TrEMBL record:
Similarity comment: Belongs to the helicase family. PriA subfamily.
Positions bound to Zn(2+) 1: 506, 509, 547, 550
Protein name as catalogued: Replication restart protein PriA
Helicase C-terminal domain span: 542-707
HAMAP family in the record: PriA
Entry keyword Endoplasmic reticulum: no
Cofactor note: Binds 2 zinc ions per subunit.
Pfam families, A to Z: DEAD (PF00270), Helicase_C (PF00271), PriA_3primeBD (PF17764), PriA_C (PF18074), Zn_ribbon_PriA (PF18319)
Enzyme class: isomerase
Any one of the GO BP annotations: DNA replication, synthesis of primer
Record keyword Ion transport present: no
InterPro entries: DEAD/DEAH_box_helicase_dom, Helicase_ATP-bd, Helicase_C-like, P-loop_NTPase, PriA, PriA_3primeBD, PriA_3primeBD_sf, PriA_C
Gene: priA
Length: 803
């Protein structure tokens, strides 16, 4: 008898354990396979985590698996199976939640069948240097048919190895589930000369044909796909109509057809060498690659990855938000061609399925993606990279609230692979680990292009107010804009508004009010009565008009919108072309890319928007960056607000003057002397770090402690509050006797209400997750059990763990 230990996809916490099932005679099953199992009166989907000869209790008769859902390959690779347990323990989630986070539903086919690989081989023309006899044999099998199922070819005596060889020679490609993938060859598309456009009814297809005709040369399919211009369906039907040619060009091992690598600077060379050494030795180590903006970190990643690939290993590259990083993906594609798979949530389902297929089949061995790509089913990881490691987007803000950096660290350690963390402004957590000797550091101090870093000027908005300047743009920023327009250059204006909370700011001296216990900004809370509130510990103070620091009478709430800024820019410069990028203008799929590409093509003079414009872009004609309200970031009620402000300012400043004239940056603020703003203006990470670290130590914030934030929500405020208080009691009881643990009172959460539900939070600070995790979990589970209907509980481990 064989038994399978199965994680069933049943959400209820009450049945959150593994179940044993009997494996029916003759069912070929591996750990990681998807199965259908009986569960109560239902049949549910489950995942085999282990196979064994004995069940938990041999005297019980176990029910049998009803069917196997996955295809040839188990969807969960070995390390992903182990990762489930880590996720459960770290993020307090259920087996079911862990599985559904690791494996997105998109890789299941629309029916209940799981991830069916329909392998077909497609005959191509223009075979060169292929073994003539074998090809003749192949042609015979393919007579009249363009594609054949793999089984047919295997039956005819062609082995998989032989088929793969044909692919390399460019006379076959492989299709998986209807999408073309093929190792070492790339698909190019070209319009047939004089293709009759009037035969095409669909606007999308016509658009594509016009584009191809305009280009007049074959275009790389992968790039068209990336730009959202094609689907494989479109190409297939256009091909059938004889309107396009589909060409497969081999990409050989030495990387012809792809971009050449750059000659490295001395600093880059040293960085690559140290990574390569680890790859060669199969040694896990975490390296912080700290490079100023524009220092060429990407080139370091690319060349290190090349080494991993040479060794037959795979690479995983995480970027903060894929929609904002089209440029980086295009660069990876130019270097590694179809060996690159891209994973992110803004792709069509079909496209995502295709990307997964190419990973499972080993066609893609470099995965580039946003947060969830950290679960890519790679079983030969040789290198992991997290670009801009300090970005908050690596943390998921819904359950399970995992941190992709932690998962990457876990996978790297398990795979004996180096983990590279790249940043110009590393998180305090990472730098602290460098200092304590746990991570190593490599620096890139110069811009690779030799361009100087931009010049930064701080504008004191208090002075502007005294001069009776009322608008959002200071005189200095207006002058700078004028100058940049006169030189036909572009400008970026950042109006950072994580605007869910408002705070009081003295228009005369720039003072804000902070919690006496937690040192985070007090925010204006409107329910039940107007008060100032600390979201960490529930400290409250009355609203006020007079400033406690200068006695002035203009304490006002702070906040302005991007639309208002747009109007103001236009009122000063009626003839400039403005592009606005914020949540309102980027709702649709692909809209980020459209706005960014329009801007980089010079279709506008100003790009203004929220923090989404700050990251990673490489615009060649931007010489001016204006930060309209640095204070908004500074006073987010979070102990990381200074750090986030510093990072944001340095990032956005780095967009200026990357190529042409020397860049200029204007930062407007009511707090010109704040250390985060001063250090950002000097672009001096050390200066920031040296000031921030002691503050964190004094107030016992990360990296000196970890913080767990429990969130309780309910449609009625009183129920949410009571739930939080109940949880607080339970935590108090279970943490009794624990040393160096701080439990703070239940308080309204920073985002006090989401979609009508009220949110309360309870914060716990501790020094070692290992020491408290069981106790926290116990209280959490009890709270889940005792809290009434409609109350939901979440946990957010709000820091980078001590692995
Ligand atoms: P970062 O990611 O560190 O901000 P990028 O990788 O975007 O920097 O590089 C900035 C610019 O420098 C890019 O235009 C890139 O092509 C160029 N670059 C990188 N390395 C080199 C090099 N070794 N020689 C010349 N140019 C380089
Ligand atoms: Zn407080």
């Amino acid at each position: 008898m064989r038994y399978a230990e199965v994680a069933v996809l049943v959400r209820a916490r009450a049945v959150d354990r593994l179940f044993d099932y009997l494996v029916p005679e003759g069912m070929e099953l591996f750990a990681g396979d998807a199965v259908e199992v009986p569960f109560g009166a239902q049949r549910v989907e489950g995942y085999v985590l282990a196979l064994k000869d004995h069940a938990q209790d041999d005297s019980v008769s176990y029910r049998a698996i009803t069917q196997k859902l996955s295809g040839q390959r188990p969807p969960l690779t070995k390390d992903l199976i182990e990762l489930l347990d880590f996720m459960r323990k770290r993020y307090f989630c259920t087996w079911a939640a862990a599985v559904s986070t690791v494996l997105p539903p998109v890789i299941r086919s629309p029916g209940k069948r799981y991830y069916q690989l329909d392998r077909q081989w497609v005959a191509l023309h223009g075979t060169q240097d292929a073994d003539a006899d074998l090809i003749a044999g192949l042609d015979k099998v393919f007579t009249k048919k363009a594609r054949l199922a793999e089984a047919t070819l295997l039956e005819k005596g062609f082995s998989r190895a032989l088929l793969t060889r044909f692919v390399r020679q460019g006379c076959l490609t492989l299709e998986l589930g209807g999408s073309t993938v093929s190792r070492r060859s790339e698909i190019w598309v070209n319009a047939v000369p004089d293709a009759a456009l009037n035969r095409v009814r669909s606007a999308h297809k016509r658009e594509l044909l016009i584009l191809l005709q305009e280009k007049g040369a074959p275009q790389r399919y992968a790039e068209l796909l990336e730009q959202g211009l094609v689907t494989s369906e479109m190409i297939r039907s256009l091909k059938a109509q004889g309107l396009v040619q589909v060409i497969s060009k081999p990409v050989n091992e030495s990387g012809e057809e792809t971009e050449k690598r750059l000659a490295l600077t001395e600093e880059q060379r040293a960085a690559v060498a140290s990574i390569v050494e680890l790859i060669d030795a199969k040694k896990h180590e975490t390296i912080l690659l700290q490079g100023v903006t524009g220092s060429g970190k990407t080139e370091v990643y690319l060349q290190a990855i090349e080494r991993a690939l040479q060794k037959g290993l795979q690479a995983l590259v995480m970027v903060p938000e894929i929609a904002l990083t089209t440029q980086i993906v295009a660069r990876f594609r130019r270097r590694f061609g179809s060996r690159v798979a891209v994973l992110h949530s803004r792709m069509s389902e079909r496209e995502r399925r295709h990307q997964f297929a190419s990973i499972y089949e080993g066609v893609a061995d470099v995965v580039v993606g946003a947060r969830s790509a950290v679960f890519a089913p790679l079983d030969r990881l040789g290198l992991l990279v997290i670009d801009e490691e300090h970005e908050a987007t690596y943390k998921q803000d819904r359950d399970p609230r995992y941190v992709a950096r932690e998962i990457a660290a876990w996978r790297a350690a398990r795979a004996n692979a180096p983990l590279i963390l790249g940043s110009a402004t590393p998180s305090l957590e990472v730098m602290y680990r460098v200092e304590s000797g746990r991570y190593t550091k490599r620096m890139l101090k110069e811009r690779a292009t030799g361009r100087p870093l931009p010049e930064v000027r701080i504008v004191d908005m208090r002075q502007e107010m005294k001069m009776n300047q009322q608008g959002l743009l200071s005189r200095a920023l207006r002058d700078a804009l004028k100058d940049s327009f006169e030189h036909q250059e572009q400008a970026v204006l950042l109006l950072n508004r994580r605007g869910f909370s408002s705070f009081l700011l003295c228009r005369e001296c720039g003072e804000t009010l902070t919690c006496p216990h937690c040192d985070v900004t007090l925010t204006v809370h409107r329910t039940p009565e107007h008060t100032l509130l600390c979201h960490f510990c529930n400290y409250r103070a009355p609203l006020r008009d007079t400033c406690p620091a200068c006695g002035g009478g203009r304490m006002r709430t702070f906040g302005a919108g991007t639309q208002q800024l747009e109007q103001e820019v236009l009122s000063w410069f009626p003839n400039v072309r403005v592009l606005r990028m914020d949540v309102d203008t980027t709702a649709g799929v692909g809209t980020h890319e459209q706005i960014l590409s329009a801007f980089s093509k010079g279709e506008a003079d100003v790009l203004l928007g929220t923090q989404m414009i700050a990251k990673g872009h490489d615009f060649s004609r931007v010489s001016l960056v204006g930060v309209v309200a640095a204070d908004a970031a500074l006073h987010v009620p979070d102990f990381r607000s200074a750090e986030r402000t510093f990072q944001l300012l340095v990032q956005v400043a780095g967009r200026a003057g990357r190529h042409g004239r020397e860049g200029r940056v204007v930062i407007q603020t009511f707090a010109p002397d704040h250390y985060a703003i001063q250090a950002a203006a000097a672009q001096d990470y050390e200066q920031f770090y040296r000031t921030e670290l002691p503050l964190r130590r004094r107030l016992e914030y990360p990296p000196f402690t970890e913080i767990a934030q429990f969130i309780v929500t309910h449609d009625e405020e009183s129920k949410a509050r009571e739930g939080a208080q109940q949880l607080h009691h339970l935590l108090e009881a279970s943490l009794k006797g624990c040393e160096r643990v701080q439990l703070l009172s239940a308080a309204p959460a920073v985002v006090g209400r989401i979609r009508g539900a009220y949110r309360y939070q309870v914060v716990v600070k501790y020094h070692s997750f290992r020491a408290v995790s069981k106790r926290l979990r116990e209280a959490f589970d009890q709270a889940v059990a005792v809290c009434g209907n409609g109350v939901s509980l979440h946990v957010d481990i709000n820091s980078w763990m001590t692995l």
